[in-house]
Design a protein that fits this description.
This protein has 511 residues and is α+β, with helices and mostly antiparallel strands. Helix content is 28%, strand content 25%. It contains 13 helices and 22 strands. Strands 8, 9, 10, 11, 12, 13, 18, 19 and 22 form a 9-stranded mixed β-sheet that branches.
Length: 511
């Protein structure tokens, strides 16, 4: 094809009218292999029961390649099945429109058209079809046409491993692996008459990362999630009711934009400590802790009233006479989850006597799986890695920093967490000052939403950011489907490429 000018390449559904040309192409590709040529009755049935699964590539009106497929209920397929078990003569009884896997039964490119990457087009079409039909993935029995020359020295498993390591060149297997298919198992006697493969086949699989399990519940699966960050102004409040009125104002504001999450900062309730400013600092913050249960209860009601999930930032809480820095996830269905700050700062420990927490886990929500780390915790990468292992989509970091140095530590570490864990990270802080509250004098913040740095995301990894040191809300959309794509098809794959054979992060059970 090097000297021939191509004027038109098109992907079309296969029709019965194409039968004769398809037959000639099949003979050219497979030669005299037994039962390699489709019958006209088979093509008629295939194009009737599943027209979208049967396609050809035509170059200037001539068939250059073909891909044929069925939909099967994979649980009903035996592990060690044969090709004939799938097609069952010309009846294709295993085709099930309600099945969960796209099974490839034929794909080829004519010899004179190879080198034009037409096979990739056929595989890409199958992937798009699989996604469109919401199937779990694609499966087919892959030939090993080079194996016959190595069958006396290597087992099929050893042969595949050497192909994977590029020690042996098998163009068919190489092509399939480079198109994101991975071996499931080796099947003996898969295709009768396939002498080049010694009748072995590799069952290859491609996973549809966008697959969602069908449900009968009246619910929707969100892929685009709206985050509402509240950059909170520290100011005096005469009472708890006055402060909660301001909280509700901001919750109402982000909910009006149909946000899925409202995020408060760390220690947003610190203004209530003003009436205890005459006390010793450890005593004053324990008095503040007396408000926590009431605030959480009111936040829980706000999450239901405004139909929004609320990350309450953090507040002091006394448990068994020990002081902790904790927060709550108030889901809009009324349920409640608690999280703790695991690394308290030297100042929190020295001034207030605050204790280290011991709870770390992800939380399932109606808008993705989330994790929460409070301020200083964001500077310890092991924590977010453990959350990423549990499938975290969004990491929320409520923070409180008094200087630009402290803020920069939180911000830069948050951006690193987004890249290394292939997730979104949202940070929310407080601004202003509290001259009448000891140890809470000034605040510096610029709330923001960070992303991984890949082609589907902003090149600088910043989705949105607030104005520095100004009271405001920040509303931003994040697309969870882009994370699924990144995990499998990113320019780099930070999660997949970790050398777990060399190092690992292991959770130690809390005492």
């Amino acid at each position: 094809m090097e000297d021939q000018k191509i004027e038109n390449i098109e992907l079309k559904y296969l029709g019965v009218d194409d039968f004769q040309e398809l037959k000639e192409a099949t003979l050219q590709v497979y030669g005299g292999m037994k039962d390699s040529v489709w019958k006209k009755s088979e093509i008629r049935r295939l194009t009737t029961i599943f027209p979208k699964g049967q396609v050809v590539i035509k170059i200037d009106g001539v068939i250059a390649g073909c891909a044929l497929s069925l939909i099967v209920d994979y649980d009903k397929i035996e592990d060690n099945h044969t090709y004939n078990d799938i097609v069952e003569g010309d009846k294709f009884k295993n085709h099930n429109p309600e099945g969960d896997v796209l099974y490839g039964i034929d794909v080829f490119i004519k010899p004179e058209y190879r080198g034009l990457r037409l096979g990739r087009r056929l595989y890409d079409y199958r992937k798009e079809l699989c996604e469109e039909l919401n199937l779990k993935g694609i499966v087919f029995g892959g030939r090993m046409p080079g194996y016959h020359t190595y069958q006396k020295q290597l087992t099929p498993k050893e042969y595949i491993e050497k192909v994977r390591l590029k020690e042996i060149n098998d163009p068919v297997l190489n092509f399939q692996i480079s198109n994101d298919f991975h071996p499931l198992r080796i099947i003996k006697g898969y295709l009768e008459g396939d002498k080049a493969s010694n009748e072995y086949a590799v069952l290859m699989e491609w996973d549809n990362i966008y697959y969602t399990k069908p449900t009968k519940k009246a619910s929707t699966v969100k892929t685009v999630v709206r985050l509402g960050l509240i950059q909170w102004q520290m100011r005096p409040y005469p009472s708890l009711d006055d402060m909660m009125q301001q909280v509700e104002y901001f919750i109402d504001s982000v909910a009006a934009y149909r946000s899925d999450f409202a995020v408060m900062p760390e220690f947003f309730n610190a203004p209530l400590m003003a009436e205890f400013n005459h006390m010793h600092e450890p005593d004053a913050i324990r008095q503040l802790a007396n408000f926590t249960s009431v605030i959480v209860e009111r936040m829980q009601q706000l999450s239901i009233s405004y139909n929004i999930n609320i990350i309450t930032g953090s507040m002091p809480e006394v448990v068994d006479d020990k002081l902790y820095n904790v927060g709550y996830l108030c889901r809009r269905d009324g349920s409640l989850e608690r999280y703790e700050k695991l690394h308290v700062t030297p100042d929190e420990e020295k001034v207030w006597g605050m204790q280290q927490g011991n709870q770390l886990k992800t939380f399932e929500t109606d808008a993705g799986r989330i994790g929460v780390l409070i301020c200083y915790d964001s500077e310890f990468p092991e924590l977010s890695r453990l959350l990423a292992e549990e499938g975290m989509d969004i990491l929320f970091i409520p923070f409180l920093t008094d200087t630009q140095n402290g803020y920069s530590r939180v911000r830069l570490c948050a951006q690193a967490r987004a890249i290394e864990n292939e997730c979104y990270v949202a940070i929310a802080g407080s601004v202003g000052n509290l001259p009448n509250v000891n140890n809470m004098d000034i605040q510096f913040a610029q709330s923001a939403v960070f992303t991984p740095c890949d082609f589907a995301f902003p090149s600088n990894g910043i989705k949105a950011e607030a104005t520095t040191n100004s009271e405001m809300i920040l509303v931003a959309d994040v697309d969870l489907s882009l994370l699924r794509e990144l995990h499998s098809f990113g320019a780099v794959k930070n999660l997949k490429d970790r050398r777990k054979d060399f190092y690992d992060v292991i959770r130690v059970e809390s005492r």
